[in-house]
Write a structure and sequence with these properties.
Elements: H1 3-13, E1 17-26, E2 32-40, E3 46-53, H2 67-86, E4 100-106, E5 109-115, H3 131-147, H4 169-173, H5 178-192, E6 198-200, E7 209-211, E8 218-220, E9 227-229, H6 232-242, H7 245-250, H8 252-266, H9 274-299, H10 308-320
Antiparallel strand pairs: 1-2, 2-3, 3-5, 4-5, 6-9, 7-8
């Protein structure tokens, strides 16, 4: 860590000194790292620092080293900065996120100092989930979507999610599924022209949720792809990140009922026509699922998430178009 970033960390935390305790993860394609910093002389025991350094040459793990790929990542860090500076303070404990202490961009670097969620009681990371954890994440998503319903995503992605069609021309061009490839713009249009739009997290996979030890509370991290969209994008992506195809199909109705029950509770007292919103978004669940399926078939045709359930939903959507 350079002296400038160390100094601002000490200043915002009131610490006398700090140490890099561990690297939590390196950022995708060699764009930096996320580390845990232990603090001395501060009431705050530790913080998490995200240090982004724009590389001179990309090293994408799947070989997507294009201008599109680089510019998308650069924009994603600009979006995350704007998110924390302008929108994050609207999140309550019902859609818990880490507190931001400082965010600074300098030359080709971005430095973010965040609350250490492990130290705040969200120290569990899960590779598999019970219904309790699914339910608590759906509740988080419902409250997040309610918080930003009908708001304009200024300085965020105008259309959220990392797989959005306009940002993925390389993956679309090499797709072998000609029917889905031809339908891709219409699927995108159907999602974008919904009456009810909110902010989507944009990367709401299981790995981006931090749980309390008992699994009853959850917080979310990583807001590089937050932007406008229908809530079903997050729900479909989350479900696909933690369940295999049989459970995706078996639990589909239960998952949607749970999400919309929580959304209805969160919207109590608002002027939103909940029945109309629910009808629209329920109908868009298979469309949102198909949209991500389109991305996967171009990005990684052998990916484990490409399965019979996804193909079944895709065929249903293609017929409806």
């Amino acid at each position: 860590m350079n002296k400038h970033f160390k100094d601002i960390t000490l200043q915002v935390t009131g610490a006398d000194d700090l140490n890099v305790e561990e690297e939590i993860q390196s950022l995708w394609s060699g764009y930096g790292s996320i580390v845990r910093l232990s603090l001395q002389g501060s009431p705050i025991k530790s913080v998490v620092a995200k240090h982004v350094r724009m590389p001179k040459q990309n090293k994408h793990p799947r070989g997507w080293n294009t201008d599109y790929s680089h510019l998308r990542k650069v924009k994603s860090y600009e979006v995350e900065t704007a998110w924390y500076q302008n929108f994050a303070d609207k999140c309550t404990d019902k859609c818990r996120i880490p507190k931001s202490y400082v965010i600074e961009a300098k030359n080709d670097e971005v430095f973010m100092v965040m609350e250490d969620l492990d130290d705040s009681g969200f120290n569990a990371r899960l590779n598999s989930v019970s219904w309790q954890e699914i339910e608590v994440c759906l509740k988080w998503l419902a409250n997040f979507h309610t918080t930003y319903l009908n708001q304009k995503p200024n300085n965020l992605w105008s259309i959220g999610t990392y797989w959005h069609l306009d940002t993925r021309p390389d993956e679309l061009n090499i797709m072998d599924d000609t029917a889905l490839k031809a339908a891709a713009p219409f699927i995108d249009k159907k999602l974008n022209e919904a009456k009810y739009l909110t902010f989507v997290h944009g990367d709401a996979k299981l790995a981006n949720f931090c749980f309390s030890p008992d699994g009853k509370k959850v917080a979310a991290v990583d807001f590089q792809y937050v932007g406008g969209g229908v809530g079903m994008k997050d729900v479909a992506y989350f479900v696909g990140s933690c369940l295999y195809e049989d459970d995706c199909e078996k639990l589909e109705a239960k998952i949607l009922d749970c999400y919309f029950d929580e959304l209805n509770k969160a919207l109590k007292g608002s002027s939103i026509n909940f029945n109309e919103l629910e009808q629209e978004w329920r109908s868009l669940y298979p469309v949102a699922w198909t949209d991500f399926h389109r991305f996967l078939k171009g990005w990684s045709p052998s990916h484990w998430k490409i399965n019979s359930y996804s193909e079944k939903l895709t065929q249903k959507v293609l017929k409806s178009l």
